[in-house]
Design brief:
- This protein is an alpha+beta fold.
- It has a single domain, classed as Alpha-Beta Complex (tt1808, chain A).
- The chain starts with a strand and ends in a 6-residue tail after the last helix.
């Protein structure tokens, strides 16, 4: 299941987070059925956060800690300003990828591959 900014999840009893994009494998969904609750208790395999001017380093460090404490497998921090993706496999373990690199899904999304430049390859405004 892939959700965008409307993908609000309860990671812990008193912690609700809204990543920019998230992926949850069917193995993590109880009964293999889409939850009916407005804010389900689910932990994604993959979280994608697109950084903006409003995101502070301390905020992102806190979020990384929360995601991994909940059981998220990998977090991608996409930085449109530097056109990079930082792939976190733990709060303090990451790899920085540039536009020339290939982003792989790893354990969270086996077989997935995309060139990092595709994240930033937008058409010119008309």
């Amino acid at each position: 299941m892939v959700l965008g900014v409307d993908g609000t999840l309860r990671f812990f009893p008193k912690l609700v987070l809204v990543p920019d994009v998230l992926f949850i494998s069917w193995a993590r969904i109880p009964g293999g059925k889409r939850p009916s609750e407005p804010i389900p208790n689910l932990v994604p395999d993959l979280v994608v956060e697109v950084l903006s001017k409003g995101n502070s380093k301390s905020e992102m460090k806190r979020k990384l800690g929360e995601y991994f404490a909940a059981g998220v497998t990998v977090v991608w921090l996409v930085d449109p300003k530097t056109k990079t993706v930082r792939v976190h496999t733990a709060p303090d373990q990451s790899t920085l990828l540039t536009e020339n690199d290939t982003l792989e899904g790893g354990a969270a999304l086996p077989g997935f591959q995309v060139c990092v430049s595709k994240f930033f390859d937008l058409p010119e405004p008309a």
